[in-house]
Specification:
Length: 394
């Protein structure tokens, strides 16, 4: 117990100069500082004693976050110049101690990562992610978080892909990670397409020549179609001008032709022995990006692969039925014709309860669409009712 008390006293003494500065500059009163010391003393004794819990560290860190927020507000109101990293450094220290002591607690790691991300301490965050993934290489959510963080905060698709590839080396059997990788690539295509449209360079996508076989199941990494840099050169001699040649060249690269999501799908299907349920999940994931020029190519490839591997599967049937309407807005003039094509495909499988159940899930959100043509609404409602009767065995 003496050792715990000594440690607590040591950590408390390190904060004395900071507290004296607060009192001297009248940021906190003597009474408030006494309360801060008492609170910190209670936390430190609890953390350094036997039986400390992860929740104790969390409460301590939360207290210091609230204290630092109050300090910042008073400093701003009083117009005082003070280094803003003092409280931040203390919170980092608490969370670092927590993850060292309870390195198996994912919740602590996530709190540490989120706080560091909020403080924009990107170099430190990179180190924390490395430590967390080194200790938890089979945690799928951490690999997904790391990949999303790099693409969302830094637009670093190369690093995001690296995290996904490394994650799949450890979690090859995780469908969630394969789907997240596919979603990451679809998201990236959507960003590139949006950028082209803003710049007025949205032209029909031209597919490149077929690549060589994309993968080797015994290799550590998936072979993706070749891309150069980030497939685009954002720099130009004049900052107000756009490198149009680079953006136009982007149309013919795998980044926009859908080759990379297709490569991921093919590799995943081989890994899962042509699992039709996974193929269905991949189809639905890709179909969410309904405004991409390459969407039909990707979905057609998914359906073709499923029909070749599992032609009699309900999952294959439902994807084949939904394909004509993929990427077509429900309120657009083209949708009735597309829906008629889907309905024609449904006819052959309308008595299958598994297909009927999926049809209901697919059509119910469409039925509630505002501005839907009355005749189309009637047709969708009738199809849903027929499917419900099949499911109920009527």
């Amino acid at each position: 117990m003496s050792n715990a008390t000594d440690k607590a006293r040591f950590y408390l003494e390190k904060s004395v100069p900071e507290l004296r500065e607060y009192e001297r500059k009248k940021i906190f009163s003597k009474e408030e500082i006494s309360a801060i010391v008492k609170k910190r003393s209670d936390f430190e004794h609890k953390l350094n004693a036997r039986g400390a819990l992860p929740s104790d560290f969390v409460r301590y860190a939360q207290y210091e976050m609230n204290l630092d927020s109050l300090r910042r507000k008073r400093v701003k109101r009083l117009g005082i110049k003070m280094p803003g990293h003092t409280g931040q450094r203390r919170i980092f220290f608490i969370l670092d101690r927590a993850t060292r002591k309870f390195h198996g607690d994912i919740g602590l790691w996530i709190q540490y990562i989120e706080y560091t991300r909020q403080q924009k301490s990107y170099k430190k965050l990179s180190n924390i992610l490395t430590d967390a993934l080194r200790l938890h290489p089979t945690n799928v959510d951490l690999w997904i978080y790391a990949a999303q963080y790099n693409v969302e905060d830094h637009a670093d698709m190369t690093q995001s892909r690296s995290y996904m590839q490394r994650g799949l080396r450890f979690c090859k059997s995780s469908k969630k990670l394969w789907l997240a990788y596919g979603r990451l690539e679809m998201f990236y295509i959507a960003k590139l397409v949006a950028r082209q449209r803003i710049l007025g360079l949205d032209k029909p996508v031209k597919a490149r020549k077929e690549e060589e076989p994309l993968d080797d199941m015994d290799a550590d990494m998936i072979r993706l179609p070749t891309i150069t840099g980030e497939d685009i050169n954002p720099s130009a001699e004049d900052e107000n001008e756009v490198d149009e040649a680079a953006l136009e060249a982007l149309n013919s690269t795998p980044a926009l032709s859908g080759a990379i999501p297709i490569a991921i799908f093919e590799t995943a299907m081989k890994n899962f022995n042509d699992d039709d349920r996974f193929g269905h999940e991949f189809y639905d994931m890709a179909a969410e990006y309904d405004d991409l020029p390459c969407l039909r190519k990707i979905l057609q490839h998914v359906v073709d692969s499923m029909q070749k591997a599992k032609p009699d599967s309900p999952h294959t049937h439902i994807c084949h039925i939904k394909l004509p309407t993929a990427g077509v807005q429900v309120t657009s003039p083209e949708f009735p014709r597309a829906f008629a094509a889907s309905f024609g495909r449904l006819t052959a499988h309308r008595s299958n309860p598994s297909v009927a159940k999926e049809i209901i899930s697919w059509l119910q959100p469409l039925e509630k669409t505002e501005g839907l043509d009355p005749s189309l609404h009637k047709a969708i409602s009738a199809t849903i009712r027929n499917a419900e009767r099949v499911v109920q065995g009527v």
